[in-house]
Write a structure and sequence with these properties.
Blueprint lengths: L1 E3 L8 E4 L2 E3 L11 H21 L3 H18 L6
Antiparallel strand pairs: 1-2, 2-3
């Protein structure tokens, strides 16, 4: 994984497996950020369980961290 910061942090791209992944230029007006955070929380919880069940403990840990961040950003859950 390579990080490129040619134009400052707001233009940072990440190269993953030979592909550049750029941040989205526009927000999806049809979805609220809180709703997206709830969805990400649910999906990362499912993926964490799958990872842990298959011995991918470090990956499960990172997915748990993503879940906690998403829950905090959703405004609907307490992170405790």
């Amino acid at each position: 994984m390579t990080f490129h910061d040619a134009k400052g942090p707001e233009h940072m791209t990440i190269e993953v497996f030979g592909q550049d992944v750029e941040p989205a230029d526009e927000r999806d007006e049809g979805m609220r950020a809180e709703d997206v955070a709830v969805y990400i929380s649910q999906m990362s919880d499912e993926m964490s369980r799958m990872a842990r069940a298959n011995g991918l403990d470090l990956l499960a840990y990172f997915l748990d961290m993503a879940r906690l961040e998403a829950r905090a950003r959703s405004g609907k859950f307490d992170i405790s």
